[in-house]
């Protein structure tokens, strides 16, 4: 199961301990890195194409349709599911759409253009951070590769999780 109900601060504490124990350099991805990985070389709204359904991602399948794709006719599981329950994207990454919103290390900016290359300062606890991917609790449209959500680093919601990146961000 994916880790859920964690704040960005919780994740950073865990990453610091993991890095100390392993000698590696794990971190959260930047927003741009997350979207690049989610798209996996595609340019459509979802890595699945112009549409998505509840056999491809875990989201509220009883809710509002997206792009008249029939997304409303799916299943609403009302919880997270095991990682790998749905097909991977073209690069072999699972659950890049749905299941849990994933923290990034990027500060929220209104006019995001995809060009940021560094994580936001960990010292600025008041700045909202970006989450990506949608979740089991949200509509199909929130699972779009470009969809953004924001929250403060202290929030722990039932559908907030994370994924790691390895190595330093570009500067």
Word description of this protein:
With 171 residues, the protein is of the alpha+beta class. The protein has one domain (1-110, 118-171): paralog of FGE (formylglycine-generating enzyme) (Alpha-Beta Complex), CATH 3.90.1580. 14% of the residues lie in helices and 12% in strands. The chain has helices at 8-22, 31-39; strands at residues 26-27, 101-107, 129-132, 148-151, 160-161, 165-166. The strands form two sheets. It has a four-stranded mixed beta sheet with strand order 4-3-2-5, with helices on one face. Strands 1-6 form a two-stranded antiparallel sheet.
Quick take:
With 171 residues, this protein is of the alpha+beta class. It has 2 helices and 6 strands, in the order H-E-H-E-E-E-E-E. It has a single domain, classed as Alpha-Beta Complex (paralog of FGE (formylglycine-generating enzyme)), CATH 3.90.1580.
List keywords for this structure.
171 residues; alpha+beta; paralog of FGE (formylglycine-generating enzyme); four-stranded mixed sheet; two-stranded antiparallel ribbon; 2 helices; 12% strand; globular
What is the rounded Rg? 16 Å
Q: What is the name of the CATH class?
A: Alpha Beta
State the end-to-end CA separation.
Answer: 33 Å
By DSSP, the count of extended strands is 6
Runs in which pLDDT lies below 50 for 5 or more consecutive residues are none
Biggest sheet: strands side by side, in what order?
4-3-2-5
| CATH A-level architecture | Alpha-Beta Complex
Give the overall shape: globular
Average pLDDT number: 91
Compute the number of helices.
Answer: 2
Name the CATH superfamily assignment.
paralog of FGE (formylglycine-generating enzyme)
Query: From N to C, what is the helix and strand string?
Result: HEHEEEEE
Count of folded domains:
1
Multimeric state: single chain
| Largest sheet report | 4 strands, mixed
């Amino acid at each position: 199961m994916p880790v859920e109900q964690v704040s960005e601060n919780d994740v950073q504490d865990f990453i610091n301990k993991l890095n100390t124990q392993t000698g590696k350099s794990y971190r959260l991805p930047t927003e741009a890195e997350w979207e690049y990985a989610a798209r996996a070389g595609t340019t459509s709204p979802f890595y699945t194409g112009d549409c998505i359904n509840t056999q491809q991602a875990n989201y509220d399948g009883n809710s509002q349709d997206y792009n008249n794709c029939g997304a409303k006719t799916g299943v609403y599981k009302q919880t997270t599911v095991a990682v790998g329950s749905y097909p991977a994207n073209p690069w072999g990454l699972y659950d890049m759409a749905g299941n849990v919103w994933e923290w990034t290390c990027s500060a929220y900016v209104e006019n995001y253009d995809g060009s940021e290359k560094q994580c936001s300062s960990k010292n600025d606890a008041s700045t909202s951070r970006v989450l990506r991917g949608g979740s089991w609790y949200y509509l199909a449209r929130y699972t779009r590769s470009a969809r953004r959500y924001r929250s403060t680093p202290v929030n722990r919601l039932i559908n907030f999780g994370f994924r790691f990146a390895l190595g330093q961000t570009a500067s």
